[in-house]
Amino acid sequence: MLKKAKAWAKALKRDIVALWLAARDPRVPLSAKLVAGAVAAYALSPIDLIPDFIPVLGYLDDLILVPVGILIAIRLVPQELMSEFRLAAEQRSGRPVSRSGLAFILAIWLACIIFMVWSLKKFF
């Protein structure tokens, strides 16, 4: 069972990099690029939308949202291109980092903080 989980995690990591490559390829349809880019940016972002220290919810995005997003994005990318991207992802030595994903997550957190401060001002 542990062996299966490790193989699944390795395949997910490869598919994230493959989707990152797909989002930059001109042969991929625009809708697939947008979904693949969003999923890859979020998965490769150094911070999570829901931090892992929050019980249950912290791991919800890692265990459910990211894999479901990957499955949806893979279905949108043409199969022959996805095979090519997977091969290229396996040959890459390092994992890319998504600065745009980081910026997006930070923008969401900033908007939440601003909203909370604005809401609390009404009470004081």
Automatic annotation (TrEMBL):
Record's keyword annotation contains Transmembrane: yes
Domain of life: Bacteria
Broad class of where this protein is predominantly found: membrane
One Gene Ontology cellular component annotation held by this UniProt entry: endomembrane system
Keyword terms: Membrane, Transmembrane, Transmembrane helix
Location within or outside the cell: Endomembrane system
Membrane topology summary: Multi-pass membrane protein
Protein's name according to its UniProt entry: Uncharacterized membrane protein YkvA (DUF1232 family)
The species this protein was found in: Aliirhizobium cellulosilyticum
A Pfam family reported for this protein in Swiss-Prot or TrEMBL: DUF1232
Record field: transmembrane: 101-120
Claim: Membrane is one of the keywords in the record: yes
InterPro entries: DUF1232
Segments forming domain DUF1232: 32-67
